Amino acid sequence: MSRDPLTLPLLPTPSQTVGPFYGYALPFPGGPDIAPAGHPDTLAVHGYVYDGAGAPIPDAIVEIWQPGPDGDRSGAPGSLRRDPVTGGYAGRDGVTFTGFGRIATDADGHWAVRTLPPGGVPYLSVCVFARGLLHHLYTRIYLPGPATDADPLLAGLAPERRATLLATEDRPGVHRFDIRLQGDGETVFLDFR
Fold this sequence. Notes:
Blueprint: E1 43-50, E2 61-65, E3 100-104, E4 110-115, E5 123-129, E6 137-142, H1 146-149, H2 152-155, H3 159-162, E7 168-171, E8 174-176, E9 179-180
Parallel strand pairs: 1-8, 1-9
Antiparallel strand pairs: 1-4, 2-3, 2-5, 5-6, 7-8
């Protein structure tokens, strides 16, 4: 005997903090490769995203926005190029610096990006998406150098808070920056209105 679906009792749907989530372009192939392949000034920035309990978050997304080495903030089209024949993803062209990258954390909460040094500012702008966040979070990754020491935002922070925005150099051309969403050593997040 078949029951009419309109007369069945309604069951509660799973609760969601945020969502629904759509996988289209989040993330996309080549998202961590902002620097053109083989560029001699390429630098790598990597780290982990941690929750309030200090556990790594395996399903966060880190977006990087930055000016080019010449200070140009207009970027270049091409991050999500489509194949005109199939409509499928054609990828980055491998030679154009777009100033944008989107990186998913792996199963251990780790992320990594290959980029070029930003011109005109000593930092990379960051946007973080993660489970449990109703709104994404904005922060900065300050790279070591004299311009970082003179930055007005950093100068206005207490030393322990300032440290949460500073990347550390693992070795030449490779920097580490962990993002802590809450708790001890919470990363300084910026409020844009």
